[in-house]
Amino acid sequence: MSEIAEQALTVKEAAEFLKTKPQTLDKWRITKTGPPYSRIGNGRGGIRYRLSVLVEYLKSTEGRAAA
Question: What is the pTM of this model?
Fold first, then answer.
C-alpha cells in the first residue's frame, strides 16, 4: 500500500476529508458507529484515522439510505 494511503490523520483532518465536523467523529467513536481509529500513546493519546481506512469506510457506506 502506498505511503499516502497509510497516512495517519488527526480528528480534524479526518473530519475535513469526510466533509463532516470533528464533533461528529467524536460522537461516532462514542457510539461505535464510525470508521475504525487508533489511539496514539498510553491510552490517553491522540486519536488518528488512517486515510486508507477512511476510504474503505466511505465505500462501505455507499448507497445506504436513512431509515
Answer: 0.79
pLDDT of residue 64: 66
Q: What residue type is 19 in one-letter code?
A: K
Give me the long-range contacts of 42-47 (CB less than 8 A, separation at least 24): 46/10, 46/11, 47/10, 47/11
Q: 52, 5 in Cβ contact below 8 A?
A: yes
β-sheet with 38-39: strand ranges across: 8-9, 47-50, 38-39
Residue-range domain boundaries for the chain: 8-60
How far apart CA 10 and CA 2 sit, in angstroms, is 19
E-only strand ranges, 1-67: 8-9, 38-39, 47-50
